[in-house]
Amino acid sequence: MDIATLVGFLFGVFCIVVSILLNGSILNFYDVPSMFITVGGGLASVFISYRVGELAKMMKVVVKTFVAREPAPEDIIRRLVEMSQKARREGLLSLENEAEEIEDDFLRQSLQLVVDGAEPEVIIESVDLELENLKLRHERGQGIFRTMASLFPAWGMIGTLIGLINLLKYLDDPSRIGPSMAVALITTFYGAILANFVCTPIANKLALKSKEEIQLKRMMVEGVLSIQAGENPRIMEIKLKTFLSPEQKAHYDRQTQELMGAADRMRTSSDSTAT
Lowest CB count within 10 Å: 35, 73, 197, 242, which one? Predict the structure, then answer.
């Protein structure tokens, strides 16, 4: 799971629990009717808003987004540079075996189009359609959580109204005032927590990860088109590094220098052994 998400969730729970315990008890914030109204009502509205099949698919996308780890952009650039060097030496058809070994489906399909001799316009049109559909799928996943972020507080207010109505109805019975008042207040608390601590942050994280994934795939496309055009690998490397942040560029340069140093040492060692 994304470490920042896990840390943020645990820290948020810690802050809420500590703030409650400093002035009261956790049991004061546990109310079954309030849960039924806020959580149950919010989920009911979500099921009304979306089809069941669509919800199941979008939840799979959400889980994959948080669990799956995207390849490092530096590794992708290095792989593309190596394939560019091989294509200049042996031709584009030599990349067919390379394409079969690539784990990333998007990069493999894009490279396969190059090997199959597709025109650059066809490749660009194909990947643009793929990225547009990817963006729409991500936006639907974000939309579910943004919908829940708007519905849970609304159902919290409905619970508050129910509690206040019961409170006014049983003013002559002091034993009923406390439970009614608890429902009136705790439902609003549940709705605010679910919206601002769970749903909105998840929607924001999904939007961020979607932008990062699309940016990474656009970098892949740029590299594949450079390979097809027969661009100098060094020029292609400089172009692809523009997709990296300053920290990623520094990390990429350090790794490249380390790999070159290791290769030089191996050559020196093999030359001395041969001598």
Answer: 242
Q: What is the CA radius of gyration of the chain?
A: 28
**Mean pLDDT for all residues in the chain:** 85
Among residues 209, 196, 203, 144, which one has the least CA distance to residue 12? 196
Model pLDDT for residues 19-56, shown as the tens digit of each residue: 888 888 888 888 888 899 999 999 999 999 988 887 88
Of 213, 230, 38, nearest to 142 (Cα)?
213
What percentage of the chain reaches a pLDDT higher than 70? 92
As a whole number of angstroms, the distance between CA 272 and CA 275 comes to 5
Tokens of 26: 């956790």
- List the domain boundaries for the chain: 1-26, 31-258
Q: Residues of the chain with pLDDT > 90: what percent?
A: 25
Q: What is the largest CA-CA distance in the chain?
A: 104
What's the full length of the chain, in residues?
275
Name which of 94-108, 111-125, 240-254 the model is least confident about.
Answer: 94-108
Contact 66, 2 (CB under 8 A): yes
Mean pLDDT of 185-201: 92
Q: Is the alpha carbon torsion for 37, 189, 11, 19 positive or negative?
A: negative
Q: Report whether 146 contacts 195 (CB < 8 A).
A: no
Give the number of other Cβ atoms within 10 Å of residue 42's Cβ: 25
Residue 106: both structure tokens together: 């998007």
> Which tokens hold the place of 61?
């996308």
Distance of CA 53 to the CA centre of its chain: 21
